[in-house]
């Protein structure tokens, strides 16, 4: 299995493209799982306005894959309001790549649980890519630092893919982020990666490759 963790939908840009192209090609089929949306999306109509071909977020999501030669017709979507566990399982079987969108990680995990598809996803043997929230949930345990969406720090359960480290997405060296990275190092792990908006991590069969501007923090070496 290969896991890719990014902060933004820009892993087709120069800082990442040469590394990512080793894994993506025009023969692959991608399944987008946009389950991280907020309360503004309440029904299928709202979902279509967000994720259909004319939707607000569609082009931003498919553009990186288009740049690696994957055409729109080879990119499928899970619709929270229209799909079922059965259709989801079928779509997973037909996919080489799973893509988790950014947004609210805890909401995404709740929706995956309600669909009862976590076991099926954890048995997936292809490539899993996630942006922001979609990166966080690939960790068996992850933390959320306070930001515009979350008032309070929290520890949360994700998918059982990665157990060796924690991540701070959208890392910008802020005092708040650094404080919570130190907290996580003290309480939970020996390693936290700060993934900037031009950074990423690829975990290939357990081997970790840092892409672009990604910082490594350990108990021995935190900041400076």
From TrEMBL:
Keywords: Hydrolase, Protease, Serine protease. It comes from the Bacteria. Signal peptide: none annotated. Belongs to the peptidase S51 family. This is Type 1 glutamine amidotransferase-like domain-containing protein. It comes from Pallidibacillus pasinlerensis.
């Amino acid at each position: 299995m290969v896991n890719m963790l990014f902060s933004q939908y820009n892993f087709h840009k120069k800082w990442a493209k040469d590394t990512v192209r080793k894994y993506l090609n025009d023969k692959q089929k991608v399944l987008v799982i946009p389950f991280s949306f907020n309360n503004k999306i309440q029904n299928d109509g709202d979902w279509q306005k967000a994720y259909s071909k004319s939707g607000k977020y569609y082009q931003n999501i498919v553009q990186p894959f288009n740049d690696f030669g994957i055409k729109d017709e080879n990119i499928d979507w899970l619709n929270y309001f229209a799909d079922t566990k059965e259709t989801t399982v079928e779509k997973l079987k037909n996919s080489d790549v799973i893509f988790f969108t950014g947004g609210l990680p805890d909401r995404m995990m709740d929706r995956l649980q309600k669909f009862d598809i976590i076991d099926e996803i954890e048995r997936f043997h292809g490539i899993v890519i996630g942006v922001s929230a979609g990166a966080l949930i690939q960790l068996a345990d992850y933390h959320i630092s306070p930001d515009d969406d979350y008032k309070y720090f929290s520890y949360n359960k994700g998918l059982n893919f990665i157990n060796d480290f924690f991540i701070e997405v959208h890392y910008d060296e802020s005092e708040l982020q650094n404080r919570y990275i130190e907290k996580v190092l003290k309480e939970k792990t020996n390693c936290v990666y700060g993934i900037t908006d031009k950074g990423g991590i690829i975990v290939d069969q357990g081997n970790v490759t840092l892409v672009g501007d990604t910082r490594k923090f350990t108990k021995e070496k935190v900041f400076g």
